[in-house]
Specification:
Length: about 400
């Protein structure tokens, strides 16, 4: 039974982010400004790109067929000093002085620069359950950050104001990697989370933070759509501790029309993460009429079991109308309940219902004895009966990172 004391303690912990803002201080803040002609001091050369030559390149060769209009963003035809980004599957060819589809990686003098290094637009201290991670250090806090930009353009993005904007259009903080690690220590955060927008586009910043955090005993977690090329994924897996993939839908058409991306690279990313041994969780936001067909949900669950195994925590989250999909209704809870049933039918041991506070499907159950191991309400952990990675009642090992 949950006592009143335990309930209040859990809620207060979940609201811990409210007292975090003073730690940032005004000294870190940079006023919103216009694009500069001089290279900003926070710009860094990108890790993954190749230089081009002087030939003319047709930009339609490097973008998704679903987005022909976006080829205009790269100013066709490319002539002269261009670079080809190798970070994500879009492979943007970027001419001198211009940026790729993500709005943050710019060609300066034949070198590709990230324009958001040490320049986040969002910094908060969140419960790890908010990401959501349910099998990774439950009940702890994660210093969470993001920069402007994204390499996807989801029509339902809840953070579109910053994800679909260049860094010149957001209010940013001047926080180099060392300052982020220091903030995490001062805030008492167990981990640092790269989240809110798409961490792929601030890849260099993320990797450098993770390299500094690990010797300090601070874990690093990534909340990503997984739309990344294989080698950057492998490198990332060497320095972070957990990755949650926001899986959009088990349909190529959905990825192209709704997210301006493609399906196969995301499937490849999840396999690489799993094979690397990094903790993996998957979230599928279920959107009425777009990706809620039972055959798609069953196909995803079957793919997970066959390629990743039955132990990967899989969340089916409720959609709420926003951005360009305000005409759709919230996901019926019955749809989420059926998705969870399908997941368990296909053999997934830890299937969850998200964005429905207080629903029994938000709790963690022992796959052996069936008892509640972690009881949640929203982002608060009310009970935890996992001891030394095992069920407190029957001793069944529970996959995850528990300490």
């Amino acid at each position: 039974m949950v006592t009143r004391r335990k309930f209040i303690k859990g809620v207060l912990k979940a609201l811990g982010a409210l007292s975090f803002a003073p730690l940032l201080g005004e000294a870190y803040r940079i006023a919103r400004g216009k694009a500069q002609t001089a290279l900003p001091p926070y710009a860094r050369e990108a890790f993954y790109y190749i230089r081009g030559g002087n030939e003319t390149i047709n930009c339609t060769e490097c973008h998704s067929p679903a987005e022909p209009s976006r080829t205009l963003y790269c100013h066709i035809p490319h002539q002269g000093n261009y670079v080809k980004c190798r970070l994500c599957p879009k492979g943007c060819m970027i001419s001198e002085g211009h940026r790729g589809d993500c709005r943050v990686r710019e060609n300066r003098g034949g070198k590709l620069y990230t324009m958001v290094y040490g320049n986040p637009c969002a910094v908060h201290n969140d419960p790890i359950e908010k990401k959501p991670f349910y099998h990774f250090l439950p009940g702890t806090m994660a210093l969470s950050l993001a920069t402007a930009g994204c390499n996807l353009h989801c029509l339902y993005c809840q953070n579109w104001v910053i994800s679909q904007a260049p860094p010149e259009k957001t209010r940013n903080y001047e926080l180099p990697p060392e300052a982020i690690v220091e903030l995490a220590q001062r805030a008492g955060s167990t981990s640092i989370a790269f989240t809110y927008t798409e961490p792929t586009i601030f890849y260099e910043y993320m990797v450098d933070i993770a390299r500094l955090a690990r010797p300090k005993g601070i874990r690093c977690v990534v909340v990503s759509a997984g739309y990344m090329n294989p080698e950057p994924v492998r490198q990332l897996c060497r320095v972070v501790d957990a990755i949650k993939i926001d899986f959009k839908g088990f349909s190529e058409e959905f990825y192209r029309k709704v997210c301006s991306a493609t399906l196969q690279p995301v499937l490849d990313t999840m396999k690489i993460i799993h094979d690397s041994g990094v903790h993996l969780e998957i979230v599928n936001l279920v959107i009425p009429t777009l990706n809620d067909a039972e055959e798609h949900i069953r196909g995803l669950c079957r793919w997970i079991v066959e390629n990743l195994g039955p132990d990967v925590p899989t969340h089916f989250s409720r959609f709420y109308p926003m951005y360009k999909l305000k005409h759709l209704p919230p996901t019926p809870v019955t749809t989420l309940e059926r998705a969870r049933e399908i997941a368990m039918e296909e053999g997934i041991k830890f299937a969850y219902i998200g964005n429905v506070p207080g629903h029994p499907g938000d709790n963690t159950y022992c796959p052996q004895c069936g008892k509640v191991l972690i009881k949640r309400y929203g982002f608060a952990v009310l009970e935890n009966h996992i001891v030394d990675g095992k069920c407190e009642y029957c001793g069944e090992p529970i996959p995850g990172v528990w300490r």
